[in-house]
Amino acid sequence: MSEENVPSKDHWLSIGEIAHRSGVAASALRFYEDQGLIRSRRTAGNQRQYQRSTLRRIAFVQAAQRVGLALAEIKQALDSLPDDRTPTRADWSRLSKTWRSRLDERISELERLRDDLDGCIGCGCLSLQRCNLYNKADRLAERGPGARILNVGIPGEA
Amino acid sequence: MSEENVPSKDHWLSIGEIAHRSGVAASALRFYEDQGLIRSRRTAGNQRQYQRSTLRRIAFVQAAQRVGLALAEIKQALDSLPDDRTPTRADWSRLSKTWRSRLDERISELERLRDDLDGCIGCGCLSLQRCNLYNKADRLAERGPGARILNVGIPGEA
DNA sequence: GCCGCAGTTCAAGTGAGGTTGAGTTTTTGG
DNA sequence: CCAAAAACTCAACCTCACTTGAACTGCGGC
C-alpha cells in the first residue's frame, strides 16, 4: 500500500474520514477546529485535511469529556501537549493526575448523595428538618449568570 | 404567634420569603412554576403566595437535580406525589429506588473511567491501539439533534 | 397620600455544545 | 466529461436552566 518510502506521515485524511473513524460528526469537527481543539491544513480547493494524529487528539477530547471537562479546559490541556508527536510521559502524568482528582471528587460526591439517599429510604421521612438529602442541597445557590451545566449523565437515552 | 386555632396551615409565604429560605432566586421560582414544578395561589393583588410545603418541594427539586435528573423528569416525579401532605413511604421508596439506580449507574461509569485512567498513568501511552481510555470513548457517538448535556460537575468554580 | 421596595408579566439573552439548512464549490467514479 | 457525492461557509436554530431588563402594579409605613 505504500508506494513511497515515507512511512505514512504524508497521508492526510479528509473530514469525512475523520468523522467516520472517530464517530464525531463533521459539523462537530469544524466546531472543534473553531474552538481551537484540532487543526487542519487545506487543499488547493479549501478542503480540510487532517493528520493521523488528529484522531488521537479527538479521542483525547472524548475521554476528557467523559471525565467531565469542558471544551475550554480540554483546549488548555491540549495546548500544553505537542500536536505533532506523542506526548511525553511527564505530560501525560500531569494531566491524568488532574483528571484523576476530578473523577475522585465527583465520584465521592455522588457516593455521599447515594448514602444519604439510602438513609432516606430507611426513614421515608422527606422531612426538611431531619433529612440529609435536603439539607445537603443548601450550598447549591449563588452562582453567576448564564447556564448551569449540570451533572445529567449520558446514559442510554436523550 | 398563633392567634387562631388553625395551627399554621394558613400561613402563606411570599416569593421573597421562599427565595430567601430556599436559596433559589425568585426568577427561578417563577420559572419553576411555569414549568409546573411548584404552585402558588395569588393575593387579591396578583402576588404569589406559597404554602410551607413548597419549601419541601423545592428541596426535593434540588436533591433530584443533584442526582442528575432533568427538570422535566423531576416534574414527573413530583406529579406522582401529593402536594398537600407528606408523601407516603411507598411513594418515596419508589422514587428513591429510581434515583438510587441512576446514581449507581453514574458512579460505576465514573469508576470504570478512573480505573482506565489509572492503567494509563502506568503506561503513559496515549496510544490509540492499546489505550482503554481511548477505546472506551467509541460508543459515545450517535445521538439526536440538540445539545448534549454532559457530566461536567459543579465543583468550586464556573 | 405618597414613597419606595417588592412584586408582576413578557420578551430576550446566556452559555455550552453542538446541528441544520441554504447555497456554492471541489472531488470522485463511471 | 459530467453527474453525484462530499466538502465548503455562514447564519440560524436547538436544548436546558435559568437570568435580565423594561415597564408596570401592590402593599406597608410614616
From TrEMBL, chains A, B:
GO terms of biological process kind: response to oxidative stress
GO MF entry, a single one: DNA-binding transcription factor activity
Keyword Iron recorded: yes
Pfam families: MerR, MerR-DNA-bind
InterPro entries named among the record's database cross-references: DNA-bd_dom_put_sf (IPR009061), MerR-type_HTH_dom (IPR000551), MerR_fam (IPR047057), Redox-sen_tscrpt-act_SoxR (IPR010211), Tscrpt_reg_MerR_DNA-bd (IPR015358)
Organism superkingdom: Bacteria
Key words, A-Z: 2Fe-2S, DNA-binding, Iron, Iron-sulfur, Metal-binding, Transcription, Transcription regulation
Keyword Transcription regulation annotated: yes
HTH merR-type domain residues: 12-80
Record-linked PANTHER family: REDOX-CYCLING DRUG-SENSING TRANSCRIPTIONAL ACTIVATOR SOXR, REDOX-SENSITIVE TRANSCRIPTIONAL ACTIVATOR SOXR
Listed NCBIfam families: SoxR
Name assigned to this protein: MerR family redox-sensitive transcriptional activator SoxR
